[in-house]
Amino acid sequence: MAFGGFDRGAQNAPMAEINMIPLIDVMLVLLVIFIITAPLLTHAVKVDLPKATSTPNITRPQNVQLAIDRDGVVYWNGEVVDEAGWRSRMQAAAALSPQPEVHVRGDNTVAYGKVARVLSDAARLGLTRIGFITDPNETP
């Protein structure tokens, strides 16, 4: 801090320190003003809302279990289907509202091309909710 002294030679030199006390005082006053006025700015209207109980009407989409075993055989909800069969069922499922979720269970040893062909057919025919089912307990 810059305090006055008895040395006459230092009076002509410019003061290089900033007095922070007035700035701190102003900030504390503003803080107190904001603390006092903030609760007054919330406008709340007391309203007794009516009580009603109802259950929401949520229509959950059905799930389609699509499995591909190690031999490349495709199962639609446990039923064996050929290529024309899964395409017609995918087209019918895409037209439903809400659209069903397709859960794909592919065998670990099945050829990737078979799974890719089934997934591309699903996307091309309009199914958008596709998920892969894996075994979380299996270690690589």
Unreliable spans: none
Radius of gyration: 37 Å
Strand order of the largest sheet: 3-2-1-4-5
Count of individual helical segments = 3
> What form results from the Cα inertia axes?
elongated
Kindly state the percentage of residues in helix: 25-40%
Whole-number mean pLDDT: 81
Second CATH tier, the architecture of the domain at 63-132:
2-Layer Sandwich
Characterize the quaternary organization of these chains.
single chain
Q: If you consult CATH, what is the topology of the domain at 63-132?
A: Nucleotidyltransferase, domain 5
Structural class: alpha/beta
- Helix-strand pattern: HEEEHEHE
Distance between the termini: 69 Å
Major sheet description: 5 strands, mixed
Task: Please report the total strand number as a whole number.
Answer: 5
The CATH class of the domain at 63-132, by name, is Alpha Beta
Percent strand: 15-25%
Can you lay out the helices and strands and say which pair or pack?
Elements lengths: L20 H17 L25 E6 L5 E3 L2 E3 L1 H12 L6 E6 L5 H13 L5 E3 L8
Parallel strand pairs: 1-4, 4-5
Antiparallel strand pairs: 1-2, 2-3
Name some characteristics of this structure.
alpha/beta; 5 strands; Nucleotidyltransferase, domain 5; 3 helices; five-stranded mixed β-sheet; 140 residues; 15% strand; elongated
Question: What does this protein structure show overall?
Answer:
The protein is of the alpha/beta class and 140 residues long. It has a domain at 63-132: Nucleotidyltransferase, domain 5 (2-Layer Sandwich). The protein contains 3 helices and 5 strands; from the N terminus they run αβββαβαβ. It has helices spanning 21-37, 83-94, 112-124; strands at 63-68, 74-76, 79-81, 101-106, 130-132. Strand 4 (101-106), helix 3 and strand 5 (130-132) form a beta-alpha-beta unit.
